[in-house]
Amino acid sequence: MPLMQLVASILPYAQIIFSVVLVVAVLLEQSGAAVGGALGGSGDSFHNTRRGFQKFLFYVAIISGILFALSAFLDIMIKARG
Questions:
Q1: Which of 19, 41, 46, 47 gets the most CB atoms within 10 Å of its CB?
Q2: Residue ranges of the domains in the chain?
Q3: CA 60: distance to chain centroid?
Q4: Positions in the chain whose pLDDT score sits under 70
């Protein structure tokens, strides 16, 4: 049972880190899209090829969102167990 106590004590900090990374990645991704449109990008918002740093931010946002959801689910399971 000490492992569960360790996970329960670390989990809130991990959730804070995942949420901050997710918010920063989404905000940077949105600002990058706006800059691309302002610098001569096409107005077609339905088709957008992600390249370079924008693709990296996209993957970081997906991974951090999944990790945040899994950590929230794990937190619920730990609290339900008692």
A1: 19
A2: 13-37+50-81
A3: 6
A4: 1, 32-48
